[in-house]
Design goal:
Helix content is about 75%, strand content about 5%. A 3-stranded mixed beta sheet has the order 2-1-3. Helix 2 packs antiparallel against helix 3, helix 5 runs antiparallel to helix 7 and helix 7 packs antiparallel against helix 8.
Length: about 300
């Protein structure tokens, strides 16, 4: 096809998670409840931070912001996916696809650096407890959040602009359940090596840069914890980091698998399953991971419930 005669599609067709009609209603019910639980779970963390004075610390300030990002993140993909489960034609408009990719890149990369900020907060709390209140003051915390959003915005603009300047002249069928870089590159009617290189370099900088900061923080934390003589002290210090480290492992593991590999290794059937991990499962699990292992959150929740019941 001559690129001069290329016509950009007004809509894209999404393959979705399954093309078996009998499964669509079941998948709708499953993911509808996942969405509701994820949103309510993350809202509960934001609510607990807002209305509990005992949680007004940098750690929970970052966690509340992270929960807000998770609500936005899962809302970027799941509502359209739920709608498509009940629709005969699984579609998304061209500009809807642009917006979806932009917010996925924005929220995903912002998540990375908030996770790094959370790791740095735990490093200072455990390794430099006497200087903690000075280093992690309110102004510094706001700067870390602001910096995370700036990185996310720049990353999203670069990837969205490069992706949607590609010609999509052939099929308009996206072999995925949302608009993401790998399936869109497979759809492009041109050589995409610049996009692949940019994804690898910029994605590597954003993902691996924040991961490196997180690893350095945790290496110092583990070293400091290993020097604590009492087993109860080590257990208490370690328990404050387990939840965060679990989230980091799930989020970075799935993200690196999707974005930091060559196009020749894209297998959409496998990638769709992995994509569910960071777009759906991580926002769902975060509230449970952080609250079920955290006595402070449990105590704060009980106090809030008691205050409400007394009224």
């Amino acid at each position: 096809m001559n690129l001069e005669n290329c016509t950009t599609p007004t809509v894209f067709t999404l393959v979705g998670l399954s093309d078996i009609p009998s499964l669509q209603v079941l998948l709708f019910v499953i993911f509808f409840f996942i969405y509701i639980i994820a949103v309510l779970g993350n809202l509960s963390i934001i609510f607990a931070y807002t209305y509990s004075s005992t949680l007004r610390t940098p750690m929970y300030f970052f966690l509340a912001n992270f929960s807000f990002l998770d609500i936005c993140y899962i809302s970027t993909t799941l509502p359209n996916m739920l709608s498509n489960f009940l629709s005969e034609h699984k579609m998304i408009s061209f500009y809807g696809c642009v917006v979806q990719l932009y917010f996925l890149m924005l929220l995903g990369s912002t998540d990375c650096y908030i996770l790094a900020a959370m790791a740095y907060d735990r490093y200072n709390a455990i390794c430099q407890p006497l200087l903690y209140s000075i280093i992690m003051n309110k102004e510094s915390c706001i700067k870390y959040i602001f910096g995370s959003w700036v990185i996310g915005i720049v990353n999203a603009i670069i990837h969205t602009t490069l992706t949607f300047t590609l010609p999509f002249c052939g099929s308009n069928m996206i072999d995925y359940f949302f608009c993401d870089i790998p399936p869109l590159l497979n759809l492009a009617y041109t050589d995409t090596w610049i996009n692949e290189l940019t994804t690898f370099v910029i994605g590597g900088f954003v993902t691996m840069g924040s991961l490196l900061l997180t690893i350095i923080s945790y290496a110092n934390i583990i070293y400091t914890i290993s020097k604590i003589r009492s087993s109860s002290g080590r257990r208490k210090a370690f328990s404050t980091c387990v939840s965060h480290f679990t989230v980091v492992t799930i989020f970075y593991g799935s993200g690196i698998f999707i974005y930091l590999k060559p196009r020749s290794n894209y297998i959409m059937e496998h990638d769709r399953l992995v994509a569910i991990m960071y777009t759906v499962i991580t926002p769902l699990l975060n509230p449970f991971i952080y609250s079920l292992r955290n006595s402070d959150v449990k105590i704060a929740a009980r106090k809030i419930i008691h205050r409400i019941s007394v009224r």
